[in-house]
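User: quick one, fold this
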Amino acid sequence: QLAELLVLRGRPADARRELDAAARLGAESRALWLLRSHLAAAPGRPLDALEAARRAAAVSPTPVYLAALAARAAAAGEGEEAGRAAAEALRLAPRDPEVRRILAAGGWRP
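Assistant:
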């Protein structure tokens, strides 16, 4: 929660440090990994963003987290992984507007 507040206050570097510390302590929160994925994507670190999205989806394989994984995989050039994650997200929630928004924002067209 502190990391989210830091992001909202325009302090992404501080948020990243907080999230890194939580990860080193073994935290397995899906929100932690998704926020790490977003923060890594912003400065153009697609492989770091992809790894964090993988962790988020592993902790909680919900349609939204799978859609985020698909978007990060596509951005990292991992087309097959993106396709699998997108297909699973759409299988689980074929009409969910949030899933479709995340996929579209990530460049994925179902």
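User: anything notable?
Assistant: The CA atoms of residues 23 and 54 lie 14 Å apart.
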